[in-house]
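tool_call: predict_structure(chain=1)
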Amino acid sequence: MIHNTMPVPAKRRPSSSKRRRASHFALKKTKTVLCQKCKRPKLPHVVCAFCGTYKNKEVLKSKLDKKEMKKLNKQEAKSTEKNQSQ
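tool_result:
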């Protein structure tokens, strides 16, 4: 004689109950707002990934700022080399 040791549901769940239970599994659309500085879409209550600002305050140094700083440093280095050579 073979005995089933796995648990089985006591009663079958009606399809309406199953659908009601599964209604909360639906995906919700993500809401976005425009950044006040660069006007690009971003998630609310999150630092802007492009410009690095949050509530009009610069929180992170963005990649653009780093690139601009490198350019400025190179230009300053070139100008100081020219001044020293003259």
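agent: Strands lie at 33-34, 41-42, 53-54, 57-58. Proceeding to next step.
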